[in-house]
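Changelog excerpt

This revision adds worked examples to the README so contributors can see how folded entries look when concatenated. The first example is reproduced verbatim below.
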Amino acid sequence: MPRSNRRGIHLPIISLGPFERMDGNPEVISEGQSEEYVTVMRLVLPIDDAEFVPGNYRATHADWDSPLEINLYQIEYSSEDLIFQLGNNFQFGANIQLQNLPFSIFADNRGKYPCFYAVIVFPMRLDDWRRPSQEEIAQKKLTGIFSKDKFLALKVLNNLFSSNSYPADVPPLQYEDITCFVEQYFRKGDPPTNPLYQHLTLLDSRNAFEESIIDYLGDDLWVHVSRFVTKRKGTDINTEADLHEVVTEAIIEVIKHHVENRHWIEPFWNESHKINVAGKRRTIPKQPKKEPSIQPTLSILLSMTLIRLGIHVERETDEGVGLLDFKCLYTTKEAKPLSVMVEFKLAHHKDIEHGLKMQLPAYLTANKSTHGIYLAMWFKDSEEKFFKKPPKRTKIEMITKLKQIAESIQQEKGFIITTEIIDASVRPSASNL
């Protein structure tokens, strides 16, 4: 069953709870008393709050006689972000719809820099994550408070922000405000550079996963999805042609409209970033993402639009002649199974025509289907300022060529293939036109 979030929209992917990643062997901190260790907790403060003031602070807590040390500081790049460095290669199991989604979706700063870090030094070993009892697990599911360590850290930070020693007004942090944090462990007296062990916690609140996906897609998109579903609700789907029409319309009215008219292109581009080359900082310009990194976003968009109409979307299905990008499945009232194949390519891919001429017809033949959709994504801007491929071909020429190939396939093989290009190029804002 798809899970419904606070906006009443069905997410076509499983909801995920907290994840943990270990960096090192936790057994190295199991010996001795808790007071023999120091725990350093690092977390990103909410990105939309501008009242954080860098500095070293001390805050009191009822459990300790002496104030705790707190450092607030700003980071400029992901290379300075310990949570990003530890979580960037994290894999969300075998869920094919989540593979290749950027980790920044699930980080509390959503991949935006600069952002503020908080570092809290606890004079003991905080290890609520170690071997919880079944009773504690049940209690965490009930209350939504999964980490006592994080709960303690938030109390300390809120004590600081409400004290006279803090020079700005900050509203109290809620448990849901922080969903990712790192705990580093040191023996007392050891230098604070090489931790014995690091423990990363991700998605630590009841709705952290859902809220991450919702923020990633944006509020406007949910409006378009709801309008499309309302319009199409109750439409009879009795044939493959009917299913083909609905899926094509979903691509045009939701995905294509949102990308082209709302200029929602960020999920399909790698941002420019800086690297060190021979001791110098060099900027790598913005580039389109590769197909495997775009497919998960398209999968979620297709699925969340179509699932409320009873259409199930499978990604990378094995058709016996290769992996099809998307397969849209529907069962009629008479229990007749229908399917529509969707193949995706970057418009600048060297095999853009081959995919339409050979790959999609092969998938249709193997599946005994007659209707397919060939979806391409275009990145070259009109001035070729941001991206220059494909060379010597305009978008209009590409649209015309793909339609000609599809018409030829229909005449020769009888397959009905709709071709659609989504323009994700960088364009000037309306205010600059």
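The second example, added in the same revision:
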Amino acid sequence: MKILISLLFVFLSGYSNFVFSQETIGVKSSTKGFSIGGHGAYLSYTASSLQFEPHTGYGFGGYLQYGFTHQIAVALNVQHYWMDPKTTELIKSPYPYTEIDLIGKYIFGSTNSPVRPFLSLGGNYSTQEEMFYDISDPNLKKIDATYSGFTACGGAGINFFLTPRFTIDLSGLYHLGAFGVTQNGTHYDATYDFTAFKFLGGFSYHF
């Protein structure tokens, strides 16, 4: 009887180890816990009361993400761009544009899949700096303007896991919000509605 119990214990121990090893082998993606990444970025934004056509630009950025589970995560993104003013005459061109995103993510699929699409929803803070001459002023006064504001943003993306922790990332986000304006140190009450779309592509590591 003791021999039978011993054999049963050995069998159960071996079976549990086999199942555990199979589960470990089956893990192809890990999105729980911290992740960091870097990306290149393309941005196009429109503020109809400020410009005649969309301004576009390229830049770079990075992000920090925390996965509460393998499907629910929150991320902080930072991007910096150099924007083409198109037909708008500026003293400095391209001009700088910086944004910060705080977004929640729902990540589809399971850890057994190396391809993990996701949806994003959150908020964004954007700021840009422009320098131009006031053509309505006889002396062509130089204006140093800062436009900044908050937006709601949402979008989608996909993570391709080359290993369970290293990914290629592609995503897009659409923004809807308003800029406030400061010119030569004076803040004005006027606001300007704007919309924006950006595309991000890069790499990340999941700890």
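Reviewer comment on example two: The chain has one domain: 30-206. Strands lie at 33-46, 55-67, 72-84, 95-107, 115-133, 142-161, 166-183, 186-206.
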